[in-house]
Amino acid sequence: MNRERWDWKFPEGFPKKHQLLVVLLVGILLVIIAIPTPKPGESLEKEGTSEADDRKTTDLDTYRETMERELEDILKRTEGVGKVRVMITFRTSAEKVVEKDLEKSESARREETVFEDTAQGAHTPYVRKEVHPQVEGVLVSAAGGDDAVVRKEITEAVQALFGIETHKIKIMKQSDSKKEGSF
User: Fold this and answer.
1) Of 8, 113, 134, 175, whose CB count within 10 A is highest?
2) φ, ψ dihedrals at 109, nearest 5°
């Protein structure tokens, strides 16, 4: 065998083999550094919060927005109210009551949660009922908010819908944006 054929050498002035290896490794390192990664602590927080917690806040926000939008739609159709914006706050969040099996004996009492299997194969607690959140207060900003009759009508409507006391309902006159020089 001709050994010279296998001993290939770089031309004069070309970097040595170990220098090329260093350049290659630095390039790989730069590619690895450029790969996006989660911020420190972010992945732990995401893993720590459950999908149910995310869904609960989303469900509560969706419920609040739906209630506000429906109240706005009703009030803006009421004579004298005009343009209206509504904000609702809640005392509690929604609550799901799960079904429990009770086993009583002479010496002890034992409760076990009832689970159901879904079509996807999930093993989830059986929810017997869902309690909607309690309304804490309602803020209404209406174009006709300076009229005493309109204020009384809005107050009575909110009381009838949410069952809250009068002092937890605030009705304000909406400002005229043309007079105020708004953006």
Assistant:
1) 134
2) -130, 130
